[in-house]
Amino acid sequence: MKQTDYFLAPLAKDIGLRIECSNAAREYVSPWQRISVETTRGFGRLYHLDGHAMAAEADEFIIHESLAHIVALAHPAPVSALILGGGDGASARELLKHPSLTRIVVAELDPDVVRVVSAEIPALPSGAFDNPRVALHIGDAAETLRTLHARGERFDLILFDLTEPDDPACAHLHGDVFLRLCAASLTPNGLIHTQLGSPFYQPDKVRALQLRLRSLFPAVGSSLINVPLYGGPWLLAHASLADLPMPDEACLAVRLAVRGIEALRYYNPALHLASSVLPNYVRDLLA
Predict the structure, then answer these.
(1) In the chain, which ranges are E strands?
(2) pLDDT at 170 over 80
(3) Which of 161, 166, 243, 248 is catalytic?
(4) pTM
(5) How far apart are the C-alpha atoms of 161 and 237, rounded to whole Å?
């Protein structure tokens, strides 16, 4: 097989996921990064930024349903949400399923991500950016949040839908200064939800970010999901200023029904609770 017949998605320095492609990649170069869209045999269309796979048609519902609904359903009635990154629109698409959310701000650095993904893989945003409840702010997410915080805006949910924590474009969005700004921008019962990464392929980064969250937030919990494009096990962390009780399965089911949320492909109340049960190697990593 020729090299041009596949895309190699890096999982670690010496490990990658080889994905067969059926067409040549469509390449776009923005002032910030190289955006590539692949048509693959196993994952359908996917896009990557500077060679790092972001989302694919076949399995994106796993990460985006988890990122949105775990915290949105843990909150009794979220009204406002901020998505850091999220230029592909999929996290906003999922949050729009919660009718109590009247304002969803998407803070995306690169307008070309919004443009390219909306045109090339329209199922990801599914028209989210045309919804009046969604406000798209282009620019550095830290500057966007500082401006919104100065105006007095506070959020029930803050979702980190970003590239790797050590990516130069967003490394500052995982540091102490910005996380303190996130904490100051939460409502009293607000939650943040971030991606820690792969506990198998990225243990050092996962542990470092989890310890940073614990040093800044009184209540921190983790969820383990499985994302094929990201190499399998993938950790999320939710954090809050208040140690709120986790809803039980019956409560989560009621909230889903009351909010009229149906036909999810990954999330369900039992899985919500089960995802917080971690295997021993992950518990040891986060200890």
Answers:
(1) 6-12, 15-20, 26-29, 34-40, 44-49, 52-56, 80-85, 103-108, 134-138, 155-161, 186-197, 219-227, 232-240
(2) no
(3) 161
(4) 0.95
(5) 12
